[in-house]
Amino acid sequence: MKTFGNSVGRLEDPNLLTGQACFADDILLEDELQAAFVRSPHGHAAIKKIDCTEALALDGVHAIFTATDFAPHLNVDRLVVGLPSPSYKQDLNRPILAQSETVHVGEAIVLIVAKNRYIAEDAAALVDIDFAPLTAVGDCRASLAPGSSLVHTDTPHNLLAEFDVDYGDVSSAFGDAPHVFTETIWQHRGGAHSIECRGTLARYDSFEDLLTVWSSTQTPHTARQLLCEILGREENQIRVITPDVGGGFGPKLIFYPEDAAVALAAMMLKRPVKWIEDRREHFIASTQERDQYWEVEIAVNADASIRGIRGTLIHEHGAYTARGVNLPYESAQTVTLPYEVPAYSLNVKLALTNKVPVTPVRGAGQPQGTFVMERLLDRVAGELNLDRAEVRRRNLIAAEKMPYTKPLKSRGGMQVVLDSGDYPECQKMVLEASNWEEFAARKARALSEGKYIGLGLANFVKGTGRGPFEPVTVRVSGSGKIFVNTGAAAMGQSTKTMLAQIVSDQLGGTLENVIVSAGDTGTISMGLGGFNSRQAVMAGSSAHLAGLKLREKILSVGAQLLDTNIDQLEFELDTISIKGATQKKVKLGDIARMLGGTPGFALPEGISPGMEVTESFVCNEMAYANGAAVAEVEVDVETGGVTVKKIIIAHDCGRVINPMLVDGQIVGGVVHGLGNALFEWMGFDENCQPLTTTFADYLLVSATEVPPIEVLHMESPSPLNPLGVKGVGECGVLPIAPAIMSAIEDAMSPFGAHIARAPIHPSEIVEMAQAGRRP
Amino acid sequence: MKPPAFHYHDPQTVSDVVALLSKCENAKLLAGGQSLMPMLNMRYVLPDDVIDLNKVAELAFLREAGSVLEIGAMTRQRELEYSKGVAALCPLMREAILHVGHRQTRNRGTLAGSLCHLDPSAELVSVATAMGAVVHVSGPKGNREIKFSDFPADYMMPAIEFDELVTRVDFPCWSVGHGYAFVEFARRHGDFAIASVAVLLEKDQSGKFSRVALALGGVAAVPVLIREVEEILIGQTAGEELFRAAGEACRKIEAVEDTNAPAVYRQHLASVLTQRALALADSRMARVEVGA
Amino acid sequence: MSETRTITLKVDGRSYEAKVETRFTLADFLRQQLGLTGTHLGCEHGVCGACTILINGRSARSCLMLAVQADGHEITTISGIAKVSDELHPLQQAFSNHHALQCGYCTPGILTTLVELLSDNPDPSDDEIKNAISGNLCRCTGYQPIITATKEAAQQMRETQGGAS
Question: Between the CA of residue A420 and those of A135, A534, A714, B101, what are the distances in Å?
Fold first, then answer.
């Protein structure tokens, strides 16, 4: 293993650093037209009439499309994409363009195609739509109350889905419990806000009868499949290519109405059509996460060991199903993961609201489950007057118990088995690194100086490596170059370097000899894409197996050609030679050409044709990564300002392919979690009008808010895949909001403050301080 | 988010600008662009004409006339940030300007651009309020001066006619060794202040406050000079109790309620920041006095 | 109405004369008319900093400038920061060494901002670096490796300049 475990430089960097990368909007086709959408300004309205006459007359406008214009050309007029689940009460699928009713601000109604985006926006302003506003429902709890207005007019109610996650004997867990504590928790996460918004460029080549779609997507094969269904075309008639993608974080895994609209427009106009989402559109038309309301209670014994947890979750789903019930399902699943919880019961309701659909953002529901568990444990500690770390120690699943079967099923029905990990050790690492034991004295000293500092702790376990597979093709060309093709989409997480490392370790050890195509349906026929922290596990394992197979073949052929045994061979760069007699050698490219066949001549003994292997490593079980974090904060109780002084995070993602890249994922996730704790809130008013639609109102973490972040490592290899790896992309997010809230609560202990929400606003901290001061 | 169509003009003299303004009924002046361009990109404004001031060389200058800083309208914020003259004569402005946006925005943003945009939390607007700046305006009828207290006509609306432009702003500086402090609370570095306090202090021979100016920014629809603070402080010696009383006077201001913060919280911040700003400004005075 | 002007300017050391619509932003001009797509658009309202370029050596958000305003000026984009073509600027190299970029979308704006910072301040502290890039949003890296990379580049640049004070 040459590069595995080493922080080798990235293949992606040279282009990205020098302005030579190619993101969706960087593709400049000479005859391309640019598009803009006319979007609903109402949270809920009937569409009475659409008048495009004035807009069409504008110089530079090529075409304007409404749902009526598209209808004759569409095989299906709704995007049916929901992941299967028995819990749906109704199916509410997005149209490509809204026709008679619009159900959220930002919903696309009209597509304008013009010479450039400037003119398209001019035309958009001239489109006259006659709306009859209807009541918009914004609060997901109110939406479920009897008598609530309907989010969609032709539906029986606003309950999209309902399910229960439960195991064990919850009633006796609670019936005899010495202590029961109840918490009401609100959590809100916001949008993805990748710095690159979405974008799609579609070009139809009538000579080849091929529709090529470049899309800033995390799921190119899914996009291709959906386009085939929608447009009534075959797989060989549509190609979806991911260019360089400027961040995804979840919402780019969704297939959107705009993607279908742009593709169809390109076909109808026989001109390339490009649509680039602007930031305002990202706020109102890209999926996002929003509210969850939890009512939970925890039953514990006198020694703080958990007897059971039960409660309800109302999850805001938005106006349509753009992914499924997976987000709250993961939230429900994640709650108990790191701890021994004998009984658990959560009723989950997904409520419709007149806002853009809710689908996963980095963490995908698991941060919320983690937050609930960690707040409950802090509550137990406070009530029983025990150290918060001690309460966790008493309940964390011990290393000796791995693999640990949780009485839970994943969404596909697989048993949840925590495959490996030492949870108590990770907690111990962060406690030591943060001098947890000495903090009480530091805190007292600070208090005597009028300063309020606090330390908070949280553990997490995250399901990663979502299966069932991710195919990878490894092929050696006649020139000796190694091609790695996969549908594992890259969005900044260094997929290409990761795969190149794995493959080159088997095939000569030179990263630069490996050319990776990630996310092009033209270079591999099947794929699922990038999400759920799965690339290293699924694509990495496939790449590893493919590389191994090819290596065996190459060495077999080499041995025959050089008339020696395999164990006498060296494979370095693109050359196979005999150890100690390197003048006896054969080139990789030579072998590849030979195995391409010469008419009338046999291949070497026992060798099958070609130098191409496609592997689809199958794993249905998730690999569970884990870790712990400690956050230190200083709270200005007069202004409510919170300064995070330091974050220490220990994480275990199994074997580490490239430490530098792993740390990058962790730190990035940590900062996202910080944003969820203190800054990010996607606001709407009571008419479902978005309030925060610019970066001035919606606050992303900038460099000045980031504290020193220390990353500690553990490697508990996963037994589930040949590399022993686990996913890492989302992990950093999970423990941060709970650790920060725990720290703020600790800092404000003189006021008896209690925090059961994220994010928190400075004004709320001031209120807590004032409330605590009253006698 | 692309700008709408407009006629673009790039005059080179003030009189050319005035002539254009008189002719165009729906024009916007383009200074640093850091406020106008976002509004154009988002199509919040739809001017028929955009008059670019960046070639009017006579509008960019920074000079000291005795104890008055005369600053041309198009002087970049960056220049104010690095000016030794500003640092010496008007340390309040220097301290405030470090909170204005980010280095990229200060490179282009101008003094008058910020003042005319009149965002209630804009730091330069608070400084102008506290210092009683004088705004020089040119129009077809000639030049006139507007005291800064008369400059805001309404929320984000300066009291200038459609055919006038700001050419220069004078900042009468306080005596050497005066106390100053600009304190703000923002969610992140560089954000507009949720609340800010700009304070200037002078004392007489006996150590009692002889001159005081305190402006609250971000709290109300326009920045406000709090006269009550002057009444409380003048003739008194510095002290925690005194500053607390001043803080309570500031808490009474009518505050804005919006997505960023509730009104009652702004009022609370006004009080807290006032106390902190007064203590800080006073400590700066004390240092100078000890050294004198 | 499509009002145009002819402008002449230098971009990344090369002279251009171009006819441009007066309402076109500098960012769109650089990207679409000159094909210099290294400068990116992230928000078009002046907050994210992805579009940052240098105008006469000073960082500015190109989404908040009209192309016509660049007439007669010198623009430097990400494509022009390396002094010698085919070689990386020390900042670019350091970014690669320290994994200071992931998706790379915000990177050009951050690099141009840092080029300006190091030219003003050859030995910046952590806080000064954070301050300098406080107007550049990154969703991937968490900023920490950017700080590290900048310090390494700064040191390298000081050493290359002969260490003379």
Answer: 51, 17, 11, 48
pLDDT tens digits for C22-36?
Answer: 999 999 999 999 999
Q: Which CATH number fits domain C90-160: 1.10.630.10, 3.20.20.150, 1.10.150.120, 3.40.640.10?
A: 1.10.150.120
Nearest residue of B to residue A685, measured between CA atoms: B259
Q: How many CB atoms lie within 10 A of CB B139?
A: 17
Rounded CA gap, A113 and A200, in Å? 13
Residues A633, A718: Cα–Cα separation, whole Å: 34
Structure tokens at B100: 């204005």
Q: Is C129 an 8 Å CB contact of chain B?
A: no
Q: Using CA atoms, how far apart are residues A26 and A280, in angstroms rounded to an integer?
A: 20
Side chain identity at residue B223, one-letter code = P
Domain ranges of chain B: 7-52, 59-172, 179-291
> Domains of chain C: which residue ranges?
4-79, 90-160
Identify whether A260 is part of a domain. Answer: no
Helix, strand and coil in chain B, % to nearest 5:
40, 25, 35
As to burial, measured by CB atoms within 10 angstroms (0-12 exposed, 13-18 middle, 19+ buried), residue C128 is middle
Asked if the structure places residue A180 within a domain, the reply is: no
Q: What pLDDT sits at residue C2? A: 85
**pLDDT tens by residue, A319-336:** 999 999 999 999 999 999
Tokens of B141: 């009828």
Whether A510 has a pLDDT exceeding 90, the answer reads: no
A31 touches chain C (CB under 8 A): no
Mean pLDDT of A3-12: 93
Alpha-carbon gap: B237 to the closest alpha carbon of chain A (Å): 25
- Contact status, residue A287 vs residue A270, Cβ threshold 8 Å: no
Angle between helices C90-97 and C144-160 (to 10 degrees): 140
Rg (CA), chain B: 19
- Using DSSP's 3-state secondary structure scheme, residue B223 falls into coil
- What 3-state class would DSSP assign to A612? strand
Interatomic CA distance for residues A373 and A380, integer angstroms = 11
pLDDT in tens, A75-109: 998 999 999 999 999 999 999 999 999 999 999 99
Assign a CATH topology to domain C4-79: Ubiquitin-like (UB roll) (3.10.20)
What's the Cα-to-Cα distance from B182 to each of A655, B90, B173, B198, B280, rounded to whole Å? 52, 11, 15, 5, 9
* Interface contact flag, B103 C116, Cβ < 8 Å: yes
What is the third-level CATH fold of B179-291?
A: Enolase-like; domain 1 (3.30.390)
Give C146→chain A minimum CA distance, Å: 9
Q: How many distinct structural domains can be found in chain A?
A: 1
C-alpha angle A196-A198-A204 in degrees, rounded to nearest 5: 125
Residue in chain C closest to B106 (alpha carbons) equals C60
Domain B7-52 listed as CATH 3.30.43.10: yes
In this model, does residue C163 exceed pLDDT 60?
no
pLDDT at B75: 98
DSSP 8-state code for residue A510 = -
Residues of A in contact with C131 (CB under 8 A): 703-704
Cα–Cα dist C142/C130, whole Å: 11
* Portion 62-121 of C in contact with A at CB < 8 A: 77-79, 82, 88, 92, 95-99, 101-108, 111
Q: What top-level class would CATH report for the domain B59-172? A: alpha beta
Specify the pTM: 0.97
Asked whether the predicted pLDDT for residue B288 surpasses 60, the reply is: no
Instruction: Identify any residues that bridge with B64 across adjacent strands, giving them in sequence order.
Output: B69
% of chain B with per-residue pLDDT over 90: 95
The per-residue DSSP string of A147-197 comes to TPPPSSTTSS-SEEEEEEEEES-HHHHHHT-SEEEEEEEEEE------SS-
